[in-house]
Design a protein that fits this description.
Blueprint (H helix, E strand, L loop, with lengths): L1 E7 L2 E8 L3 E6 L18 E6 L16 H14 L5 E6 L1 H12 L4 E7 L14 H9 L1 H11 L6 H11 L4 H13 L12 E7 L7 H10 L3 E6 L6 H4 L1 H14 L6
Parallel strand pairs: 3-4, 3-5, 5-6, 6-7, 7-8
Antiparallel strand pairs: 1-2, 2-4
Helix pairs in contact: 1-2, 3-4, 3-6
């Protein structure tokens, strides 16, 4: 697996890549980074690329407003810079909303979408009375660890979890509340039918953030979508059960004639 930095719209974006073939782009969620996809970078017949979006991980922070559409513009800028188009784009949690925005604004970049425990097309509202808890997560590692552990209850790899927490602490200070507000204001419901590609929605039954109703609403918003429910998995199958994710993902690619199993 190789890594590097790319200058996109004045921001340094960190990325990792592995393999050759059909382009697969991984987009992480809130408090996340490319580390969340480390266990699923080896996809036979594919060139997998995982990025740290601006404000996250090893990438530079953003100046000014934070929005889902702005994050999507940076993902698009990275793909343009690297000559990546007609990719299978995988979005986790907040990253799922970013991928949906990307698919609508730049459909030529997104051949198919995979949305893993993703925010719905109308976002995810965090009540303002939860903001003090978010700030406490930012300043108190123990609280952050507890919150993250609750989202991935079946993750057993302690070293990976430590790295996940380490990268979460790198998130730019304004993004802690800014991301919550961005998700609260995100709504592309009226435009979802414009996207003509295939969409795979995954949700773990133990996910404490994305409900079954939200996942069904996401799948129902697109013309060509299906929902796969994962028993005994929390908010992120990519780290909790990467073998299962890769099995489902490769089946999806084969069904679409994108890549052989």
């Amino acid at each position: 697996m190789a890594s590097g930095f790319a200058a996109v719209i004045g921001v340094s974006i960190f990325f990792v890549t592995a393999g050759k073939g059909v382009p697969v782009v991984y987009v992480h969620g809130n408090t996340g980074s490319s580390v969340w996809f480390r266990p699923v970078m080896d996809v036979p017949g594919c060139r997998a690329v995982a990025i740290d979006m601006p404000n996250f991980g090893q990438s530079s922070p953003l100046d000014g407003d934070i929005s889902i559409q702005r994050y999507a513009a940076y993902v698009a800028g990275f793909m343009d810079l690297k000559g990546i188009k007609e990719a299978v784009v995988v979005g986790h949690s907040l990253g799922g909303c970013v991928v949906q925005a990307l698919a609508l604004e730049r459909p030529g970049l997104v051949k198919a979408m995979v949305l893993v425990d993703s925010g719905a097309p109308n976002g995810l509202v965090t009540p303002k009375d939860r903001h003090p808890v978010i700030e406490l997560m930012r300043t108190n590692r123990a609280v952050l660890e507890q919150a993250l552990k609750a989202t991935v209850p079946t993750l057993k790899d302690d070293a990976l979890f430590k790295t996940i927490v380490d990268d979460a602490q790198k998130m730019a200070p304004p993004a802690w509340i800014g991301n919550a507000e961005a998700l609260s204001h995100f709504d592309i419901t009226s435009r979802c039918a414009e996207y003509e590609g295939q969409v795979l929605v995954m949700r773990g039954t133990l996910d404490p953030i994305i409900t079954d109703e939200m996942a069904r609403a996401t799948a129902g918003a697109y013309r060509h979508a299906k929902l796969v429910t994962l028993e005994g998995v929390g908010h992120s199958v990519t780290v909790e059960n990467p073998v299962l994710f890769l099995q489902i993902f490769r089946d999806f690619l084969a069904e679409q004639g994108i890549c052989k199993k």
